[in-house]
Amino acid sequence: MQPPPPPAAEPAVAPAVAARGLRKHFGSTVAVDALDLDVPTGSFYGLVGPNGAGKTTTLRMLTGLLRPDAGRAWVGAVDVWADPLMAKRRVGVLPEDLVLFDRLSGRQLLTYTGLLRGLPADLVEERAGALLDVLGLTPAGGQLVVDYSHGMRKKVALAAALLHAPQVLFLDEPFEAIDPVSARTIRSVLERHLSGGGTVIFSSHVMELVERLCDRIGVVHGGRMVASGSLDAVRGGRSLDEAFVDLVGADVETGEALGWLGTSSD
Question: Which of these, 16, 73, 10, lies nearest to 44 by C-alpha position?
Fold first, then answer.
């Protein structure tokens, strides 16, 4: 019988978010495998990787939505699983798969979220109004969320995640299927969060977007962190797209396998 593994070491200096030895498997599939992570306070951190790399599973463990099989995670100095209520007070989460109370209006959704967070009613009303205005949702504030477009749903979900002024904002594919106007609005709100001392962590597989927004990145492949650090350090003088392909070992050669493409038959 093998001895149990030693406990994951707590980071010496508490960053905004940290993880040591995170592991999660689903049946025989290992989704995240001994992953370590350090996100400095005030950074715009991109968690990137190919589809199925383990990004969403990692974010769910970091935010207390999915219990790891092994390892530990912290938000600041708070252990996510030892003190989950305190950890959740410090974070806002915008998941990829939006599940909203869509029979409420946009304003009612924000009011409900704020009161659940224990915020005073007058503060909730003030912040909800400001967020709806900044995100361009004031005209739709009285409409049911079920009638919102995809972009509007993303924006009202972001407003709900920001309502309690979290220290760290977690976003899973926040710009997927978003029109350019909505994307620009969301980016401006995230920049305001950063300028106020907050931290943003978002997952994506769109390298151009990550390169434009992030100052630090982590590359996940096969459930492991294969590279992390500043954007320039990970790129190593290349474009992020080129560095990413090299890091994950992708083979983009089609060879002769698709030689029939472009040869239409009569």
Answer: 16
